[in-house]
Specification:
The complex is a heterodimer of chains A (596) and B (184).
Chain A lengths: L1 E3 H11 L4 E4 L6 H7 L5 E4 L3 H15 L3 E5 L3 H4 L2 H9 L4 E7 L15 H4 L6 E4 L6 H13 L5 E7 H5 L1 E3 L22 H13 L3 E5 L2 H4 L3 H11 L3 E3 L14 E3 L7 H9 L2 E5 L5 H4 L10 E6 L13 E4 L2 H14 L12 H6 L12 H13 L14 H11 L5 E4 L3 H9 L8 E2 L10 H11 L5 E6 H7 L2 H7 L5 E6 L4 H10 L16 H7 L3 E5 L2 H12 L6 E6 L31
Parallel strand pairs in A: 2-3, 2-4, 4-5, 5-7, 6-7, 9-10, 9-12, 10-11, 12-13, 13-14, 15-16, 15-17, 17-18, 18-20, 19-20
Antiparallel strand pairs in A: 1-8
Helix pairs in contact in A: 1-2, 1-7, 3-5, 3-19, 9-14, 11-14, 17-18, 17-24
Chain B lengths: L17 E9 L4 H12 L3 E8 L5 E9 L5 H9 L4 E7 L4 E12 L5 H10 L3 E5 L3 E8 L1 H11 L4 E6 L3 E4 L13
Antiparallel strand pairs in B: 1-3, 1-4, 2-3, 5-7, 5-8, 5-9, 6-7
The chains are: A alpha/beta (596), B alpha+beta (184).
């Protein structure tokens, strides 16, 4: 069967199971847009290519399937650079198809030419410039394989216009051997000897902590993590990328560590004598000053990317492997080590109180460790004060959203103060319900990512909790949402500032506020929402919060924007100042005098 | 280019700052840029780099001399492995490798120094590869330290141009017990 390269490309995407893609056409990608009219794939026409990339990310982060975006050459391709970088930092599987000028014109500075494979080399897991139409099925199959296996990540396929127009004899690669990837062999199973060493360290530890990262979600290992934690009675912290990987409501959960994590999670890592890092990468936002991080802890580091083992902190036991498979191996090794199945019950705070002195021979009692953790939790919970008649506090908004929305609501955030309040005050009890920009810190992520999430999970309520600065960067995609009937909800925590920058200038630059004021009224967010085909609601007092949230939750046929006018001077606490040790954690001023 | 003082005896106790990676890559457009880009963005330093085809037309070999003080070797290797076009990596400690490098130099060679220079090239087992009225071009190949020594001695002459290839290396062969290995 003879097909054009363009037809082969769309057919290959269909065979990969692609149901939806996000994009915007242009000159060099025109041939590929023609067969879309005859395809089963739903194409969502965005208003800016950055929106297409972030939508594909939101889709991937909620469904676990690769997100697909399509753009034209030159500026179309460069507009998707930020989403590629974002997906690379957060290991999100993404396949981006870009048009390119014809092969004869490459290198001549042709109209809308850009060396996008060169530009994206350092921010994709791999990329391909397709030179022959006959390569298209193989490259598409290879691209999906690379994006979704091993440590997931974004890939880019650059397709010159003449390659799209050329004829090829259709085929479909039937096996991995046909993908021409001689250097690609991701690891999966952990080394059994290392797994035994890890279990020996775990069972000898007095102050162990499971440091769970985004790799748990990528590996679909949340169930295994729950089983492992309950089996061992070891407390779990969930990083910003792992919120929902372990239920916040679970008694073993300590919540989020890091720069704006809670005191107990941060300090548990610091005082630990054994860290079991599962799919986490010792990011500077978690470790604080690296030389001062968890100084007494031995480290077992499990990661599917061998380059993460020892990149930041040299582990005592490095285990390269898929988190789900390695957790299964760890569970088997616990049996082999003779750990009783009711062991955790004898060691958690509950068990220690109920059955003191029942620690099985050889394994230290975790009771004293749990007593310290519970004491920190009691003294240093997340804390804010909503004063009667005072300005609206953002924490109250997040708590009200949480309490009035379905438990499996997908929450999406941009980057800044609102992101931290959302992570702190939401209660994440289900995996894949939290979508945010972690490693890259991409402002403007929330609106398009929420749209992608809602496309991937139309059965769920999707709330974006956004900042006013972030919202202004990508709000135009609400036009896409209205046109495509994608009913996302956006809560703008409008403090009229680039709030996190304002907080740093207040705390570290002697209150010298440089270029951070935005105004609460310009733009008028309610009118803007209406102009984009959505519903706009303004909230100025605490009393108005719940009715507005209920009204928004009742709208299911168009986007809703709620403009919450919040206290401009509220700061995110706790805070570990950049470059400082986690021991220097700054708590809310009302908690500052409490003994640590 | 290797400029730091090296031990004159290969494999001696002096701790080497460099390590050789022999990297087998797919012979595809852009692969060298991927490797070079990785070193640049991760802050790994390269002393020298040499690329050549192999007997398999689908593969090329890149010989990279890495500064192991800029980053742990293990980290460099693991990051290189993440490049999809990298097929295999051999790590060669200086004591475990046979290394060779080639130097070409054009030197002013008036009647007063010409015979001296030719003699010097002969001592290093090199060749005179081109002769002009008042200049000669010479070639010396060998262990990089030998090439360093030759380059050092050339400082006494008026050098017009000098070019080195960067080192290439292969693993030393296993010694048979009780027998000498030959030239290292």
């Amino acid at each position: 069967m003879q097909l054009t390269g363009a037809q082969a490309l769309i057919k290959s995407l269909e065979l990969q199971g692609v149901e939806v893609m996000f994009g915007l056409p242009g000159g060099a990608i025109l041939p590929v847009y023609d067969p879309i009219l005859d395809s089963s794939i739903r194409h969502i026409l965005v208003r800016h290519e950055q929106g297409a990339g972030h939508m594909a990310e939101g889709y991937a982060m909620t469904t676990g399937r690769p997100g697909v975006a399509m753009v034209t050459s030159g500026p179309g391709a460069t507009n998707v650079v930020t989403p590629l970088s974002n997906a690379y930092m957060d290991s999100t599987p993404l396949v981006v198809v870009s048009g390119q000028v014809s092969t004869a014109a490459i290198g001549t500075d042709a109209f809308q030419e850009c060396d996008i494979t060169g530009v994206t080399m350092g921010i994709t897991k791999h990329n391909w410039l397709v030179k022959e139409a006959a390569d298209i099925p193989r490259v598409v199959a290879a691209a999906f394989h690379v994006a979704t296996t091993g440590r997931p990540g974004p890939v880019l396929i650059d397709v010159p216009k003449d390659v799209s127009n050329a004829q090829m004899e259709w085929y479909w690669p039937e096996s991995l051997d046909e993908l021409d990837l001689p250097g690609y062999h991701p690891v999966t199973v952990g080394d059994p000897a290392k797994v035994r060493q890890a279990v020996a360290l775990l069972l000898a530890a007095e102050r162990p902590v499971i440091y769970a990262g985004g790799g748990i979600l990528k590996a679909r290992a949340a169930q295994g993590l729950l089983e492992f934690a309950e089996r061992t009675g070891i407390p779990v912290v969930t990083t910003l990328m792992a919120r929902g990987a372990f239920p916040d409501s679970h008694p073993l959960c300590l919540g989020m560590p890091g720069m704006h994590g809670n005191f107990t999670a941060v300090t548990a890592l610091q005082r630990s004598d054994l860290l079991l890092a599962l799919g986490s990468r010792f990011d500077d936002r978690v470790t604080g000053k690296i030389d001062a991080f968890a100084p007494e802890a031995k480290v077992v580091h499990v990661d599917i990317d061998p380059a993460e083992l020892g990149k930041v902190r040299v582990p005592d036991v490095p285990i390269a492997g898929d988190c789900r498979l390695v957790i299964d191996e760890l569970l088997v090794a616990l049996d082999a080590a003779g750990l009783p199945h009711d062991d955790a019950a004898t060691r958690s705070d509950r068990g220690a109180a109920a059955r003191p002195g029942t620690a099985a021979a050889g394994r230290p009692d975790l009771g004293p460790w749990w007593a310290r953790l519970r004491d920190w939790q009691a003294r240093f919970p997340y804390y804010y004060v909503q004063e009667d008649g005072g300005p609206l506090k953002p924490e109250l908004v997040v708590e009200t959203l949480r309490d009035l929305s379905p438990v499996d609501t997908v929450v999406v955030a941009g980057v800044g103060q609102h992101q931290m309040w959302a992570s702190q005050y939401w209660r994440f009890d289900h995996p894949y319900t939290w979508v945010n920009s972690g490693g890259a810190g991409t402002m403007g992520f929330a609106v398009p990512a929420a749209i992608g999430a809602k496309v991937g999970r139309p059965d769920r309520t999707v709330w974006a909790i956004d900042g006013d600065g972030c919202f202004q960067m990508t709000a135009q995609e609400l036009v896409t949402a209205a046109a495509e009937r994608i009913p996302v909800k956006i809560a703008i925590l409008n403090n009229a500032y680039l709030g996190m920058v304002r907080q740093w200038q207040e705390m570290f630059y002697a209150e010298r506020y440089s270029e951070v004021y935005l105004s609460p009224d310009l733009p008028d967010y309610v009118k803007w929402a209406e102009a984009m085909g959505g519903v706009g609601i303004r909230v100025e007092t605490p009393e108005e919060v719940a009715p507005a949230v209920e009204k928004a939750n009742g709208i299911d046929d168009r986007p809703v924007v709620v403009d919450f006018r919040i206290d401009a001077f509220e700061k995110v606490f706790p805070m570990v100042p950049a470059g400082a040790s986690n021991d220097a954690i700054v708590v809310h001023p009302d908690q500052a005098d409490r003994p640590r | 280019m290797s400029t730091q003082p090296l031990s004159l005896v290969p494999g001696s106790a002096a701790a080497p700052r460099h390590h050789i990676l022999s990297v087998l890559v797919e012979n595809k457009a852009g692969v060298l840029a991927r490797v070079a880009g990785l070193f640049s963005r991760r802050g790994f330093n390269i002393f020298s780099l040499a690329v050549a085809p192999t007997d398999n037309e689908r593969l090329s070999r890149i010989s990279i001399v890495v500064d192991v003080e800029s980053a742990p070797l293990e980290q460099v290797v693991q990051q290189l492995h993440k490049l999809v076009n990298v097929v295999a990596i051999s790590e060669l400690a200086p004591s475990e490798a046979v290394e060779r490098e080639l130097l070409l130099a054009t030197v002013a060679a008036g009647p007063d120094v010409r015979s001296q220079l030719i003699e010097l090239v002969g001592v290093f087992g090199g060749e005179v590869v081109n002769v002009g009225p008042d200049r000669i071009t010479v070639m010396v190949a060998g262990h990089p330290e030998k090439v360093d020594d030759f380059e050092g001695l050339l400082r006494d002459y008026e050098r017009v141009e000098l070019q080195r290839t960067g080192r290439v290396a292969l693993p030393k062969l296993e010694r048979r017990p009780g027998r000498d290995q030959g030239v290292g």
